[in-house]
Amino acid sequence: MQQDHKKFGLVGKNITYSFSKKYFTEKFSKELFDDCTYENFDIPTIEEFPNVLKENPDLKGLNVTIPYKEAIIPFLDTMSDKAFRIGAVNVIRFTKKGNLKGYNSDWYGFKKSLEPLLQPHHKKALILGTGGASKAVAFALDKLGIFYTFVSREATENAIDYNRVNVTTFDNFQIIINCTPLGTSPNTKEFPPIPYEFFTEKHIAFDLIYNPEETQFLKKAKKKGAVTKNGYEMLVFQAEKAWTIWNK
């Protein structure tokens, strides 16, 4: 293999249909980065991660997806300030010294994607789900000055449960963000258990899922007049940010 070959990749589980591989392979081809390749590293548990590093000494950068955005942290040498505050990592840079540094570009992608939709009345957001992606979304909402509440299957110190979501909730929260995997292909009939009849044209329904293009969550919200958006553009923004991080 030539000396200057640069390998990038995605670490996750069940990621055959991942956005990243297709996106970066096309990017490298279009922008003539002939020395760059992108691979999926589909691992059954995070304990396999050191093997990925061992078997791929030419790695220059990685993306991390579910379910490892939080689990990967103990394997890193350092983290950026933002990734540390978010508590989730979706980009890893290999430093000149060979250290692994964790970053989060999800928050940036989400913020850039949501911003054009915002109107003055969009003051509060409901975040459905409490995983790594929802933490990045919360960080972005903080930056935008939007108050948020988490919704989870079980009520916790930081989240209400789905049973608490009612017409009053919809009156108070004008942005509903799906950070759960419910509705992702191939399980396209699934959707978060919220009362969709209370969506109005004053609401934004944002789904981090991009496959299918329109989830049940988005379809049901759109029927009631809500402004809807899927996660595709967010992924493009976070991918370009990852590319910038790798090439620092």
UniProtKB/TrEMBL annotation:
Pathway: Metabolic intermediate biosynthesis; chorismate biosynthesis; chorismate from D-erythrose 4-phosphate and phosphoenolpyruvate: step 4/7. Pfam families: Shikimate_dh_N. Keywords: Amino-acid biosynthesis, Aromatic amino acid biosynthesis, Oxidoreductase. CDD domains: NAD_bind_Shikimate_DH (cd01065). It comes from the Bacteria. InterPro entries: Aminoacid_DH-like_N_sf, NAD(P)-bd_dom_sf, Shikimate_DH-bd_N, Shikimate_DH_fam. The keyword NADP does not apply. The keyword Amino-acid biosynthesis applies. Residues 10-92 form the Shikimate dehydrogenase substrate binding N-terminal domain. Gene3D superfamilies: Leucine Dehydrogenase, chain A, domain 1, NAD(P)-binding Rossmann-like Domain. This is Shikimate dehydrogenase. It comes from Flavobacterium cheonanense.
